[in-house]
Amino acid sequence: MSIDEMEQDDALKGSAQHRGTHIEVGTDPAFAFRRTRRDIHHEVWSLAWPSVATMLLQTVNSLLDVFFVGRLPQSRQALAATGVGGQVIFLLISLAMGVSVGTTALVARFIGGGDRDSASKATSQSISLSLVLSTICFLVFYSSRNKLVGWLLHGSDGAAAGVMCSQFLGAALLATVPLFLMNALMGSFRGLGDTRSPMLIQAAVITTHISFNIILIYGYLGFPRMGVQGAGAAFFLSIVVGTFLYFFALIKRTPISDSLKISAMKLKYEWVQRILKIGIPAAIQSVIRTLGMMSFTGLLARTLEGSAGVAAMQIGLRAEALAFMPGFGYSVAAAALVGQSMGAKDIEGAEEYGWAANMQGVGVMSFMAMLFFVFAHPISALFTTDPTVQKLSAAYLQINAFCEPFIAIGIVLTGALQGAGDTLRPTFITFITMWVLRLPLAYLFMFTFNMQTVGAWYSMLISTTLAGLMTLSLFRGGKWKSIKV
């Protein structure tokens, strides 16, 4: 074996070791990758399970939020308030994705290509960019929070829910800057292929969140009883803890720790452009979805059931998250493996990882859908004693159980496309299915056909099914294989 061949062999082994790829070295000087289907599925699962665990922890956290708030006086209004407030927070997270998705794609490409210095620079630039953008977002959202609440909550009991929602956001929006920073750091860890550190950090975040929820919502350990405002304060404190832990892990426990430099954090136009070229379409996609859901909530609030329908959707979404959060875990794995494979010029491997992650995600979410359909009523009863909310949330779970496999396809393959840097085309899918299809259908079913809240659930079923099929078509088409980052 020549020196050049030995160096090539070492490079291939190094790349494979990082991605968990099995290599057999033979007489072919190219030393091609040889994977079995079992190898591929094992690699996907090894990277996905910590992300699945992380997402499930987040889901449990959301469910406990509903549980704690649902036990307050005026539970219907309190649930509607925190549900709408949560949508505003998710809108912020959607904007933060403009940095985090771009960071994941770039870091994954650089790590797959063995360029740790560039991965470090991409991370440093994303931190600085997040700091600037989050400060602007905080000023805008905090000053306009009451107008947002007034637009989203209507009906006979909308005023009470609106006051509670403003109280919740007054505390929760203080987390805007650390929220952006945490998402940027999370994007870097995903690009590095490290899903275990985020799992451990998320466990600490959730422990903090739950502890302060109990203390501040109900007023234990000498603290005042703050109600929904306490839920917002608990969210803020938990995000601060999570951001600190991510910074500590980045400095101490990553392959790029040694190459991180303070001087690299000075924003440079070329890096901002590279990050946002990938990230802006992903952020727009998420914003389109979030604004669509906020408009959807506004329609729900105008039905005969009013805030009961809004509260039911929050229970349904939180419970349903037990299914689609594992899908997000597989999406993270798909993004990292596809991105790193593209960086290593292994296009075939990137496609294999995408399909394997999709298969596993669909399997998990289909199983969970069956449980939701069978146990819809007991699940609903766990979160509220209001009979109207129970009935509507159970209907939500049973109707939307049928589209869970298609939601899985949409979530996982969107992650694979984002890992490849293809973020523009999925954005069009979100716009079409949310604004062109779901909202008009919801209006038609709820008010023209007089189906009220249940009509909204059927519009969700139809639009999410179509979104999954359209995403499947994009990935199968293969144009993502030629994306340059």
Distance between the termini: 35 Å
Stretches where pLDDT falls below 50 for ≥5 residues?
1-33
Supply the helix-strand structural class: mainly alpha
Q: Would you list the SSEs in sequence order as H and E?
A: HHHHHHHHHHHHHHHH
Rg (CA only): 23 Å
Supply the number of structural domains: 2
Number of helices: 16
Total strand count, please?
0
Largest sheet: none
Categorize the overall geometry.
globular
Please estimate the helix content.
over 70%
Q: Mean pLDDT, as a whole number?
A: 85
Q: Hey, roughly how much beta strand do the residues contain?
A: under 5%
Question: Helix and strand layout, with pairings?
Answer:
Blueprint: H1 3-19, H2 37-70, H3 75-112, H4 116-152, H5 158-172, H6 176-192, H7 196-218, H8 228-252, H9 269-301, H10 307-343, H11 347-374, H12 376-383, H13 387-400, H14 404-419, H15 424-448, H16 452-477
Helix pairs in contact: 2-7, 2-10, 2-11, 3-4, 3-5, 3-6, 3-9, 3-10, 4-5, 4-6, 4-9, 5-8, 6-8, 7-8, 9-15, 10-11, 10-13, 10-14, 11-13, 11-14, 12-13, 13-16, 14-16, 15-16
